[in-house]
Amino acid sequence: MPDFCAALGCSNQRNANTKQQGITFHRFPKDKVKRQLWKMALKRRDFEPNDRSVVCSCHFKAEDFDRTGQTTRIREGVIPSVFLFTRHLGKAHTATRTSRTSQKAAEEPPQDHQYALDPVQVKKRLNEAREKLEELRRDLRNAKDRERRHKKTVKSLLEDLKHKHMLSEELQQRLDDILLG
Fold this sequence. Notes:
The protein is mainly alpha-helical. It has five helices and six strands; from the N terminus they run αβαβββββααα.
């Protein structure tokens, strides 16, 4: 038998989808006084919770939860308190926090302009990029210097071979084309 949230107007059902969204379900307390407080908080006429009745985590504040263990638990003495009741219709609507992101946002203190850049971080990253650019420029300059030295050495060796008449005219012509081309 599926578990649906007992809050009026809430259609959250215990299933894989709600679990993935981070919604947890909590049974009514066994203690009669606490159970009565939960029942009154729901404001449902003629509702009597049974042993399987549950309320989803959308009806609790972020600070109502104990998330220190593997299981998300309700802190001792907490009563569900997140409801939007419409008096003139006699119905209740819940303010649901279904996604993990919205739950996390509800748990964190509000920050002004979360999308704004942190100037300290930006400056640090800019300096790192400048250092990397300078390092790459140095590497390129060194590679070009090595290439020039190698070409000079090859040219000098070819000149020596030419003066000693160790190259044929055909080979000499091909090497000249390569070096000049």
